[in-house]
Design a protein that fits this description.
Elements lengths: L1 H21 L6 H21 L5 H23 L6 H20 L4
Helix pairs in contact: 1-2, 1-3, 3-4
Length: 107
Amino acid sequence: MAWIMLVAAGLFEIAMAYALKQSNGFSQVLPSIGFIVFAVLSFGLLALALKTLDVGTAYAVWTGIGAVGTAALGMILLGESVSLLKLASITLIIAGVVGLNLASGGH
């Protein structure tokens, strides 16, 4: 269950970043409210997952999901540039998260 909460927390982190971008420096009300809601959900689920998961692994997975998801979202939905270096870097983030998970025994 902790892993499900952690993955959900990472997905809410992606939503949080997208809402932050759409808030235009907190000048747009609905995206600003969305940012706050997604932030509370993301951090709250992370905190619950940390009750049973190792902090290093959980934090790496959470930030990895957020970083990879936000970068992909930016390239797919927001028209941000796509390059081989960006894609390779995303792949390295994924490999690092998987490696940390394997090193911790996958608990």
